[in-house]
Design a protein that fits this description.
About 35% of the residues lie in helices and about 0% in strands. The chain has one domain. With about 100 residues, it is mostly helical. Helix 1 runs antiparallel to helix 2.
């Protein structure tokens, strides 16, 4: 990832950037000061109440959206672990003997 997914000179680049901007604005509006982000709108499971799980997930999504619009370098963090933007190493190859 390097903020190039929405370059205006790529196929549908302007449309991609506009979509990402709208999603980024909507996601940031759900932040609750001192609490974080809720996981989602449902009432079962993690639901809308802010907590670690929702905050971790939404910060990763926000970083990805910001990267699409070329602003991830302004955030001051980069997702790590399971939320990292780079592909994982994957499982070891299957050995058949």
């Amino acid at each position: 990832m390097g903020g190039r997914g929405g370059d205006d000179d790529t196929y549908r680049g302007a449309e991609i950037r506009a979509w990402a901007e709208r999603r980024l604005t909507a996601a940031l509006a759900t932040w609750q000061d001192g609490k974080g982000f809720g996981f989602g709108p449902g009432t079962a499971g993690p639901g809308p109440e802010p907590g670690l799980q929702g905050t971790e997930m939404w910060l990763a999504i926000i970083w990805l959206l910001a990267d699409l619009v070329g602003r991830s370098n302004h955030l001051g963090y980069r997702p790590r672990g399971i939320h990292r933007p780079e592909p994982g190493d994957g499982p070891p190859p299957l050995r058949i003997s």
